[in-house]
Write the structure tokens for this entry.
Amino acid sequence: MEKRPDFYKGVDISFLPQCLDAGMKVKDLDGKEMEPFDLLKKYGVNAVRLRIWHTPGNVPESGGYCDLAHTISMAEKIKKYGMQFMLDFHYSDFWADPGHQQKPKAWEGLEYRQLKDAVFAYTRDTLLALQEKGVLPDIVQIGNEIRSGLLFPEGELPDYAGMTGLVNEGIRAARSVADSSKMQIMIHLDQGGRYFYLKEWFQHAFEEGLMDFDLIGLSYYPFWHGTYTDLKETMERLVKDYGKPIMIVESAYAWRKCENGFIDEAQEKIAGFPASPEGQHKVLDLVNGIVASLPGQMGMGVFYWEPLCLPVNGVGAWAENMGLLDESGRVLEGIHAFEFTREKYDPMEWAKVYEPQ
């Protein structure tokens, strides 16, 4: 196991194999082509998060990516570069998030008890397969953004007992493979700046017997999940309530406005920064600083969600303006945010109010 970093400067690059297979080339700030991992390492990235889907082959749009074979291959590369490896179980054949938590096709028709057994066996067997290849994750997420539950309908809220029973099987399976000195367990919720939602989830889950875990993971996109002050206050309160270290495991910001992208003027105003390369860099620095500001170094780091994606003419969506690459594949100045250290943290920076130009 790699030594745990003082501050996780991470990226979720689950799309990378797919992008490279489609011919993407990644270039440094000076336009020189670079191997993607070399580029990330050069600017201070020390951790990589990967999602895993149960049987993505069941969903044509997945292209079959994010299965166990792709995960092992990527994990070997992560370890080769001396980076931390976080594995995110979606417990689905395709995307899982607060609006979609569709169980894998293989588990359709199972009774609740059988579903719990399936979660345990699949989690354990996946982790054992990774361990056998020498690429056991350093951190494992039991579900992705499970604020509304997982494996609907059995684990859908407000049935906290049903949900907690399923999450506990994932935790139990992970603990059966390795203890927390080798692999830490994370619970991941979205709405990082909305304390009320998160408090309600943890309170009910613990009442229903949620097993012990090591880390809280949050998604925080400043145009969706509250203000920077909301984020700071929410994390401080969660640390006080539960005594668990916290990471932002998904964050991002736009480097330009565009018709089919994720940011328009309304969201730019909410986020308080222009959608520009400089604005993107400032948002990332700010989020790093807020996490580093938590008392007792309980803010453990920040992961950028899918920075290495190429804008393709007319395709739109995430790659259009939310990654860290321009249309030529050249990295943007936001990459410098990964040079952040706790020593560089400015306690007053977060408190300023920013208005877009």
Observations:
- Residues 124 and 173 are 5 Å apart (CA to CA).
